[in-house]
Amino acid sequence: MDYFLRVAVSLLPVLLFLLALSLLDSYKLVRRRSLTIAILFGCAAAVASLGISTLLKDGLSLRPIAYSRYVAPFVEELLKSAYLVYLIGSRRVGFMVDAAISGFAVGAGFAIFENTYYVEVLGESRVVIWIVRGFGTAIMHGGTTAVFALMSKSLFDRRNTRDISMYLPGFFAAVLLHSFYNHFILSPVLSTIIIHITLPFVILVVFYRSERATRRWLGSQFDTDQELLDIINSGRVSDTHLGVFFRSIKESFPPETVVDMLCYLRVYVELAVHAKGLLLMREAGFDPKPSPDVGRKLAELKHLRKSIGKTGQLAVNPLVHGSHRDVFQIYMLERR
Fold first, then answer.
1. Are residues 163 and 69 part of one domain?
2. Which residue of 249, 297, 323, 329 is surrounded by the most CB atoms within 10 Å?
3. Of 194, 177, 83, 179, residue with least CA distance to 132
4. Model confidence over 219-267: pLDDT tens digits?
5. Do 188 and 253 have their domain in common?
């Protein structure tokens, strides 16, 4: 019974916090499968960290306290952030909310393995140790990875770039927070209390601001996409800004490619309108399913993407916005 108490106290807080974050997401952007993958990656990062720490402590002849303060934060945050770099770089997270949830899930996975390992290694220890590890260290791991995800996603959205330097501010912020916690400047119990006061507040503020920004984006872009789709379907393209655009590029592309570019634009906007409609319905409390013809349109989009090539896609991007959020909405339909 004592063993199960230690396991529960060290694991339940971070899992409950992750569950609360998922429930706060009114758009349901992060599915259970994605959460599970993030947690498993966090566990794998913890396994790798354990092996690396053994090699570094022996190779550098570091005392455990020095390693935990100055080396472990770099190693652990680097390993935890790898999966977030993949998600953000491949535009598989569209908003700061799902970046925060995915980041916290990776940190939670790391904490799950680490705390389970220490329950076995430390054996019979005072319950207060597991309270500190469960309510303090585990939440810290989730929080620092969420901070990395939030800062990186924010910079990528503002700059709309894939420059790897956009990850550095979030990484160093996570490392500094992790190192500060490991310095034990405050007592472990007091540090745990502070984490539980500040982290939920910061996350709630981010959720509020992100959902408000998402709402604005959905409202404005839904109307813009619908207007663009009406223009294409009406056959009045030549009399609009679209007509001006296609006339300006007709000397740079073969006629059949220009036709495919217009088809690509039509299919992309149809899917974008459908994706935004799904998000708006989720916010209203419904759980809609994608239209049956979404699969066919995605296949057509993939074919047209190959047909017009990279240059054609770059030319059309200004018309379909091309931001991380806009790319994410197509990915959201692909993973349905």
1. yes
2. 329
3. 194
4. 667 777 877 788 888 777 777 778 888 888 887 888 889 889 989 888 9
5. no
